[in-house]
Structure formats: C-alpha cells, structure tokens
Amino acid sequence: MLEGNSERLYCLNRAAEAAGLSRGMSLADARAFCPALMTDPARPDRDAAFLSVLRRWATRYCPWVATDGRDGLMLDISGAAHLIGGEEEMLSDMQHRAARAGLSLRVGLADTRGAAWALSHHAPGLAAPGQTAAALAPLPVAALRLEPAEAAGLERLGLRLIGELEGTPRAPLARRFGPGPLVRLDQAMGRQGEAVSPEAEPPRYATRLTLPEPIGLQEDVMEGTRRLLLRLCETLQRHETGARRLCLTLRRVDRDSRQVELRLAAPMRDAARILPLFQRGLDGIDAGFGIDQMRLEATQVESRPAQQLGARSEGNGNARLEDLLTRIGTRIGLENVLHFQPADSHIPARAFRALPAAWSAPGQGWVPPRPRPLRLFAPEPIGATGPRPPERFRWRRMALVTARATGPERIAPEWWFDDPDWRRGLRDYWLVETRQGRRLWLFHTPQNPGWFVEGEFA
Questions:
Q1: pLDDT in tens, 265-298
Q2: How many CB atoms lie within 10 A of CB 190?
Q3: Which of 194, 257, 334, 346 is most buried, by the most CB atoms less than 10 A from its CB?
Q4: Residue 261 has pLDDT above 80, yes or no
Q5: Share of the chain above pLDDT 70, in %
Q6: For the chain, what percentages of helix, strand and coil (3-state, to nearest 5) are there?
Q7: How far apart are CA 75 and CA 127, in angstroms?
Q8: CB of 440 within 8 A of CB of 434?
Q9: Is 419's pLDDT higher than 90?
Q10: Whole-angstrom Cα distance, residue 246 to residue 229?
Q11: For residues 117 and 106, what is the distance between their CA atoms, to the nearest angstrom?
Q12: Is the pLDDT of residue 313 over 50?
C-alpha cells in the first residue's frame, strides 16, 4: 500500500508474521528481512466491501453487528447465544462455517467489548462470566486498544501486563498519561459502559407486486408497473437518490420470467416521467398464460439531493432532453449517443472529445484564444510560398482570391505526444476570407515552408 512516497505492508499471512514482518513496515525493510517476499497490490476498497458482506453474514447469530477497524467485527450476543446452544457452540459454529469458506477467524468472547477485543487479538478464546479480570491479567497492555505511544510509555515504566496496570495506583498514571489508558482499562473491566453500534442496513431499491389473478394485457402490465414505480420512487425520494438503471421482472404462471431493463440518461425518481419509457420494452413481452408477479428494482442509483425551488425556478429544465436521450438510448444504446466536450489542448484536433451524453454534463472547459472553425479536416496542401497568406490560390479545384487575412496564431506541437501530423514543427494559423465567400483556416510551416488548409468557418 502506498503511503506518502513509500510502499508499506497492508496485510500479512501467518508465514510473514512468523518471519518478523508487521503491518505498516516499509516494503524495502520487509524485503531485507525476507528477500523472497511475494506481494500483491492492496485493495482497501475491496477489503471494505468483503467486510461488509461478512457483517451481513454475522447477523445470523445476533442482530447487533458492527465493523471494528478495517478487519474486524463486533457482535453483541446478549440474549442470542442460547438459540444456537450456548456461547461455546456459537463460537464453534462460526469457526466451522468460516473454515468451509476458506477463512480463519480469531474470536474472543467476554462480558465487555474491550475484553472481547483483547482476547481476539492476543489470546483467542472465551472468558467465563465474571472472570474478565483473570482472563485479561496476563495480556500485554497493548490489548487495551491503547495508542502506540501510550503502550510504549507504560512498558518503559515496567507495566507490561494488564494485571500490573490494574494493580497500580491510578492518580500517578492519570497525571502522566491522561485519562486515555484508564478509560480503556475501565471499559475492558466493565466499570465503564461501551455500546456496540450496528451499522444501518443499506436501502433496498426494489418492490414487488403479487397479483391475485394472472394478467396478460399490456394495459394491465403498464398499470402494475405504474404502481411499482410509485412505491419505488417514494423510496428514492426518501433517500435523496435517483435511478439510472431499472429492471422489471415479470413472472409468468409457468414459473418462467421475462425481464425489461431500462437505462436512463439521468438519475430520475419521477414515476410519471419514467413510466412512458417502459412502453417500448413492454411491447414485445410474451405473457404466456398470464403474469402473476411483478418485481421492479433499481439496479443502479446515484445521489440526487433535494433542490430549493425559488419563485422563478421551473425545476429540471433538461427533463425533455433527458427523456429524449433515454428513448434514443433504448434503441441504439446510451453509450452511442455522444456529444462534444472541450479538451485542454492547443492542438486543434485534440481540443475536443466525444463523450456519452448520458454520463457527462456539458462543461465550459478550456477556451482557445482565437476562434476555431466549425469544420476540421486533415491538412490539404495548396500551392503557395512566403510567410503571408497568398493573394490567389487553388483549393479543391476552386480558384480563390484572398479578401482579408487575420493572424498569425502560432501553435507549437505538444512534444509529449508523437503525432505524425505535427512533425513539421511550428504552425502559423491564419483566418482567410475569400471574395468567393469561403472562410478558411490556413496554416504555414516555417521550418519546412508550405501552406495547408485545415478547416472552414461557417
């Protein structure tokens, strides 16, 4: 894992720990200890997602489950252990199920949260009720979740074990280290409460409608879709989100299913706007002997906070454009509906990008110092000499006479790109207006004298 300007160890296996490596150690130092060390790039985002999955799995044992750090879970099993046969049976079941999934757990169980953390990290096992102090006494003071500086300071005083810290007068410790170590000690011993705060379940953007009688007419299916949309949009409104992708599943009486997927050009939560967009997808649905269940899910959502509407505000002024993009995208794909965006480059051919209109809002971007032609094409040579635009020249079999020339605008090549069209070096651009009505963009190359036409103004 990259921290600052050095790579550091993020996670270790047992063999690496046995070799003396530790988390946070620089990769250079780790290779000095283990020349044959094998590493992979750390992915904290994936680790967090996996820990969230484990947290949800752990709710099979109790409803109060919270994440603890970046690799731990904290469960409050009060009143739930007897459902699985007791505390020992619960720990055994956890480890057995984790082993089948290829995971190894370090589990600690005690009367308090701090004691359970200490056991899981330093002496995995179970502390009998009322025996918390005895179970923690032989453990190092670092098991109290102290800061490294606090633990090192206590060890320099000779207080290496929790039992030694428990028997030391509190007043001198508070004067020297502050209340931190004593608060952690009291939490572990149960003299000060510490609650487990479970994380809220993520919202489920899905709704279902079970029909008493099968339906098959398109009007009935649209009505069912409307009811599902109303309930789903209420959920989206409550969480200030908008749907970007919707999936409508229609279950037939023969237990076969049909799906209609709708990809929206912008996050929406207005049922009246979304419903007509389902029309095309539902036209070709085969209802078979009838549809008895409908399910609508927003498979992709984006944040859409509530907006303050003033006296002159009319809401979303781009609603019609977004609906049009959605309708076109349903036919040819949203990724094929493109628009041009300015790009930060002086090179004319690189001054714009074509991006999908559904996932990129129009932006100002970089503004060139001079106007750019509406039409650009590959440079076309013309027979002319000299550093100034020719008075007469031929282009595309047309004889043209220069009426006015504006320039030059010197553009240097971008040396960090190897562009064959710019190997001639500098270019001096001119806006040439001809008597025949053509407004052309010409450039001259001083290093290798020549004149070219690259664009035409409207």
A1: 889 999 999 999 999 889 878 888 999 999 999 9
A2: 17
A3: 334
A4: yes
A5: 96
A6: 35, 25, 40
A7: 15
A8: yes
A9: no
A10: 10
A11: 10
A12: no
408 cis-preceded (ω within 30 degrees of 0): yes
Does position 92 have pLDDT exceeding 60, yes or no? Answer: yes
CA distances from 264 to 119, 207, 227, 250, 437 (A): 51, 19, 19, 20, 44
Give the tokens for residue 19: 């070799």
How does strand 108-109 pair with strand 125-126?
A: parallel
Q: Which two tokens stand for residue 454?
A: 């690259």
Q: Residues 286, 335: contact at Cβ < 8 Å?
A: no
Name 260's Cβ contacts closer than 8 Å, sequence gap at least 6.
247, 248, 250, 278, 281, 282, 285
The torsion angle over the Cα atoms of residues 414, 417, 420 and 425, rounded to 10 degrees, is 20
Secondary structure of residue 364 in the 3-state scheme: coil
Rg (CA), the chain: 35
Give the up-direction half-sphere exposure of residue 385: CA atoms within 13 A in the CB hemisphere: 0
Query: Which residues, including other chains, have CB under 8 Å from residue 99's CB and lie 6 or more apart?
Result: none
What pLDDT, in 10s, does the model give residues 235-250?
999 999 999 999 999 9
Distance CA 350, CA 372 (A): 12
Question: Rounded to whole angstroms, what are the CA distances from 445 to 299, 409, 425?
Answer: 55, 12, 7
As a residue count, the chain comes to 458
CA-nearest of 339, 314, 334, 335 to 324 is 334
Name, in order, each residue with C-beta under 8 angstroms of 90's C-beta and a sequence gap of 6 or more.
Answer: 61, 77, 81, 84
Residue among 242, 205, 231, 115 at smallest CA distance from 166 = 115
Please provide residue 159's backbone torsions phi and psi, each rounded to the nearest 5 degrees: -95, 85
Q: H helices within 340-447, ranges in order?
A: none
User: How far, CA to CA in Å, does 261 sit from each of 324, 326, 431?
Assistant: 17, 12, 50
The pLDDT of residue 124 is above 60 = yes
Query: Could you give the domains of the chain?
Result: 2-42 (3.40.1170), 43-104 (no CATH), 106-202 (1.10.150.20), 206-304+318-330 (3.30.1490.100), 338-458 (no CATH)
d(CA 205, CA 209): 14
